[in-house]
Amino acid sequence: MLRYILRRLTHTVLVIIGISAISFIFLHLSGDPVGLVLPQDATQEQIAALRQEMRLNDPIYLQYLHFVTAALHGDLGLSIYTREPVVGLILERMPATIELALAALVLSLAVAIPIGVLAAVKRGSWMDTISMTVALFGLSMPHFWLGIMFIMVFSVQLGWLPTSGRGTWLQLLMPATALGVSLIALFARLTRSAMLEVLSQDYVRTARAKGLSEIMVVGNHALRNALIPLVTVVGMEFGFLLGGAVIIEMVFAWPGVGRLIVQSILDRDYPVVQAAVMMLAIVFVTVNLLIDLLYGWLDPNISYDGRSK
Amino acid sequence: MVPLEEAPEPAAPGAVARLVRELRSNRSAMVGGLVLAAIVLGCFVLPQIWGISPTKTSLVTRFLPPVWGDGGSWAHPLGTDNLGRDVLARILAGGQVSLLVAFCTASVAVSVGLVLGTLSGYFGGWVDSIIMRIGDLFLAYPFMLLTISVIAIMGPSLPVLILVLALSDWVTYARTVRGSVLSVKEREYVAAARSIGTPDTEILRRHIIPNVLSPVLVVGTVRAASYIIWESGLSFLGMGVPPPTPTWGMMLSEGRDYILDAWWLATLPGLAIMFTILSVNLVGDGLRDALDPRLKGNN
Questions:
Q1: Mean pLDDT lowest for which of A199-213, B120-134, B207-221?
Q2: CA pair distance B263, A247, nearest whole angstrom
Q3: What is the pLDDT of residues B170-181, one digit of tens each?
Q4: Which residue, A70, B49, B179, B224, could crosslink B7 as a Cys pair with Cβ 3.0–4.6 Å?
Q5: Measured between alpha carbons, how far is B246 from A303 in angstroms, rounded to an integer?
Q6: Which pTM was predicted?
């Protein structure tokens, strides 16, 4: 187990180094920041001084080393626009984005798992057909369009929910649902197919033969095993949530990292864009590390030393 | 959306006829295929015959509702927007962009994934390690964020959009192909070919690649639906194909400002996206079922 955790940790660290390199390259490619920082009539001396200060004269590998060292000290540079440290700008907005992503995730799991289980248990019934057809539609709807439709119906027409902002759970409801709908569809389909697979296994037949109630069989024996494939997909879809949040945050004026990224792109404030993307990617990698460890706890059949038991 | 590792078994050679038969007996795949064909024809052929410009503005015909609405007319079947442009013409023109992006992205990503996945699976060793570690890195980046940060630098345009989407997603294909190659290369006929001294390139061309093509094409079809969503999402943010070319995402974003009195502007392009994706998904599901009967009805 320890070896497995160590290996996963090393892997995660390597990936984070890779992410930092990509971010650095993007930042480098985004052009000479001097022209964006200094006014048009800056003197040659001012330009030279700033280049020196920003270490733009160093060879590129030194610049990268400097970037990494600074990053380890929590310094990802200054916003070109406001001259504030970008880490502060991003951390300020990170909770909003994570709140939205988690709300969408919890909501979609809470709705999808019961639907998927019911559809599998009542396979071929009208419930199965209807829920899987609805799921197919759910998978096909762009979440930002759904968000606009929600605003049109529930805020503009009915006046039930606020159109934008963050603070109360009423304001969280529409963005989280819009973001979660395609996941509900995906998770419901996955739960259904995993349940169908599990329900045909020997141990389920044994449990039934022992005379256990159907609820015990489905809830205790089958569901627990059916959830295992779901866990991996949840990890991968967390990336979708973080990326999708960029658009949903624009639709609902949600004050998260996504909106900061889009605004910074419009302002050509590349240090903010790259740092925000890098930090979201690191959140994503960390979530996946945690999920992999959770996976081992859920499924005792997983071997940690690379061999199967 | 199939889990990445779950590559369907490669189809046996000469399975095309069986595939067509399977697809024909799959009602939802047939419906999806017909709808998709109608959408493709509608987007690429209808504008040629109909001849209404998607970009021509007209101040006297602003905010006309669709034909069934109060004051709508057949001159503009789906109404007009805030600049008096015809909504149907714009939806059809936007469809050309979405379909083109989805098709080209899938083609580029499948090609890259096919080459790298084949190298990785066939040669193994350090080639495999390097390609797969780079792949891990791409997977670690949330898809949307990777595309946004590249487009932020390079500026939005059609080729950039296609390349960026394809580059963000080649790993999906490389992994599928690698999985198939690993299983195919252990088959007797490959061992036989190798034992008589057939060169690697010949083995790859004659025996491996034909057998790994079908699963990767299925994944490509299923993923094409996501490309349409991401393309419209990026256009929605102003990072897609730049104006004046209409795109579905851009129409949504413009229509958002008028949801109070012109509901059709934001609603209709979204419906266009939904039905296109729905039909692509149905076809993708049908293809997967046809190639891998084991999964049939389970998804």
A1: A199-213
A2: 20
A3: 988 998 888 888
A4: B179
A5: 53
A6: 0.83
Q: Which among A139, A196, A236 has CB closest to B298? A: A196
Would you say the ipTM is above 0.85? no
Confidence (pLDDT) at A303: 52
The Cα of B284 is separated from the nearest Cα of chain A by a number of Å equal to 12
State both tokens at A11.
């892997």
Report how far residue A68's alpha carbon sits from residue A86's, in angstroms, rounded to the nearest whole number. 15
Look up residue A85 and give its DSSP letter. B
Q: Rounded mean pLDDT of chain B?
A: 83
Task: Report chain A residues whose CB lies below 8 A from the CB of B252.
Answer: 144-145, 148
CB contact under 8 A, B3 and A281: no
Q: Give the containing element (helix H, strand E) for A214.
A: helix A214-216
- Shortest distance between the Cα of A142 and any Cα of chain B, in A, equals 6
B15: exposed, middle or buried (Cβ count in 10 Å: 0-12, 13-18, 19+): middle
Alpha helices in chain B (DSSP H): 16-25, 27-44, 46-50, 87-123, 125-140, 143-154, 158-184, 188-195, 200-203, 209-236, 248-255, 263-291
Binned at pLDDT 50, 70 and 90, residue A270 comes out as: confident
Separation CA A32–CA A10 (nearest Å) = 34
d(CA B153, CA B165): 15
